[in-house]
Amino acid sequence: MLKFADLIDENIEELAALDAIDGGKLYKMAKLADIPGAAETIRYFAGAADKIHGATLKMSRALQGYTLREPIGVVGHIIPWNFPSQMFVMKVGPALAAGCTMVVKPAEQTPLSALYYAHLAKLAGIPDGVLNVVTGYGHAAGAAISSHMDIDMVSFTGSTEVGRLVMQAAAQSNLKPVSLELGGKSPFIVFDDVDVDKVADLALQATLYNKAEGIYDKFLTKLVEKAKAWVVGDPFDPNVHQGPQVNKKQYERILSFIELGKKEGATLLTGGKPCDRKKGYYIEPTIFTDVDDDMTIAKEEIFGPVMSVMKFKTVEEVIKRANASKYGLATGIMTNNLNIANTVSRSIRAGVIWINCYFAFDRDLPYGGYKMSGFGRDLGMESLSKYLQVKSIATPIYDSPWL
């Protein structure tokens, strides 16, 4: 695994280029963060491989008891297109450390880097048959993995709708356990004690915004100003902030949500249409205001550069509104008040809470959702557990002076 990580570092430019070509990821960000982070994730789990231990049990009668943590077996990984490199290693890393073999199905939109990672794994000496990549569409390859009688567990990241199908197939086949990281509609909550200029930069990286009423107008002005300066274009251009959408289907889906927002009565402040004079699936950064909680753009995951700005008055109100979502993946909280940060972070039902930061991923920080955002965790030592079985062993103790 350490050799595998070294080879990833040695092939940063190739892997970054593949993710840019395949999915429109920014080449400079993939080269600076995504691919080096992938190598470090593999190293992290390499370090965990010899730290998987059972426990010695204090039994209630004359028995010696202990547990073993054994590999669950053959794992099926089904990963999405939004973070092809990170998703690959956050699934493969702990499964390898746990001693599992696996079949990885990358998204049909972004298969190239997964195939290259498999090539590097072979060069690193990972035995044939341990790490396998099978490309294909979800309804064929993904369905085959989910229903296969010889696959012992499935780890899936994707939409809530497909997550249901994975669970159904797992239940109807061999009752294999599943781990699901599904859709989200993550609130980004800004209180009125923050530096508006600094938080606006963070806000552009998130997707749904709730703003305290006291700074609403000032924040909105700053946000629109920065959105209009946001550079959309070729993902290989180092000056670009946002590349194209992954394919025509996603491009058209985002534009349909924008039209729904206008139709349902939200006010379009900026953006809202394809970028002028750009060949490809480029969409302007889009900001809506006057958004009600029951509007489609406020409830559904858009997965594109569309933001909804909404007011709130009290801490209690914003907690209630955040928890009204059917999802519970992540939440951002922007405040300098420690009491508010503690209260809101403990009250919101979401798997990850980012305080005064956003997209603060780390290989040691478990990531996953509540409610319809799924269950199970990727990353961190917590992620190893889903790839391990617990075996309990008991033997009699005869004539021992102590138990």
Overview of this protein structure:
- This protein starts with a helix and ends in a 7-residue tail after the last strand.
- About 1% of the residues have low confidence.
- The strands form 4 sheets. A 7-stranded mixed beta sheet has the order 10-11-12-9-8-14-15, with helices on both faces.
- It is built from 13 helices and 18 strands.
- Helix 2 runs antiparallel to helix 5, helix 3 packs parallel to helix 4 and helix 6 packs across helix 7.
- The protein is α/β, with parallel strands linked by helices.
Task: Please specify the SSE layout and strand pairing.
Layout: H1 2-10, H2 12-23, H3 27-48, E1 56-57, E2 63-71, E3 74-78, H4 84-98, E4 101-105, H5 112-124, E5 131-133, H6 138-147, E6 153-157, H7 160-172, E7 178-181, E8 187-190, H8 196-203, E9 208-212, H9 216-228, H10 248-263, E10 267-270, E11 286-289, H11 296-299, E12 306-312, H12 315-323, E13 327-328, E14 330-334, H13 338-347, E15 352-355, E16 370-371, E17 374-375, E18 388-396
Parallel strand pairs: 3-4, 3-6, 4-5, 6-7, 8-9, 8-14, 9-12, 11-12, 14-15
Antiparallel strand pairs: 1-2, 2-18, 7-17, 10-11, 13-16
Helix pairs in contact: 1-3, 1-5, 2-3, 2-5, 3-4, 6-7, 8-9
Main β-sheet, spatial strand arrangement: 10-11-12-9-8-14-15
Beta-strand share of residues: 15-25%
From the helix content, strand content and strand pairing, which structural class follows?
A: alpha/beta
For the largest beta-sheet, the strand count, sense and barrel status come to: 7 strands, mixed
The rough form would be described as globular
Total E-strand runs: 18
Low-confidence stretches: 207-211
- Treating each run of at least 4 consecutive H or I residues as one helix, how many helices? 13
Radius of gyration: 23 Å
Percent range of helical residues: 25-40%
Separation of the first and last Cα atoms: 41 Å
Global mean pLDDT: 93
